[in-house]
Design goal:
single chain; 216 residues; alpha+beta; four-stranded mixed sheet; elongated
Length: 216
Amino acid sequence: MKPLLCCWMGLIGLTATACVSAGPALWQVPPAANAHRLPPLEAVAELGALARTDATQPAELLQLWKSELHANLAETAIPQAFGYARLQVTRANVRRTGRALQTLQMLTLLTPSLLGVPLETYRTTLTAQLQVLDADGNVLGEYEGTGTSAVKVAMYHGYSQAEAPALSDAEALRMALAQIRAQVDTAADRLRPRLLAGGPLPLPEPVASPSVAQKQ
């Protein structure tokens, strides 16, 4: 049994090295800028229901949301924003299918995987909600999108066991954001004057250097 387990672990490592890599673009969105853009907004992101999957970290979701907001929805940031764009995942479900084949994979020393048969597939289904708030925290609009994904753990044409869970979440999020993007484009002409009328967010107070603090 021990030699079989050693072979299994060795082949798992080989599988990981032969997989496709998600690369640095994992938490980025493709440019698809709206024709009608919002004023600069401060990005806020909450994992919500996605926190239960343990695949996506809060900083990763915020990175994805900032990429979408700045590239596609709002104007280029200036020293002050005119409100908040708060994204929250309200529903999320992750399933792993194809795991029943793993016993066969182990008994055959991963021969099917070496031929390109997937070890398993991660499937994420989620709903994301965007709230647009003015500088006083008043909700001016709410928009919702749903996303699904299917990411294979496989050699040659799939992803590694380490990358697949996060990639599954990211692909579902990008689909949901694309739906939200279209809704925001339609609502931008209504939202823009209300955000500007609410005024900008206050600038953060500068942090005094230690030398300045000592003099005071």
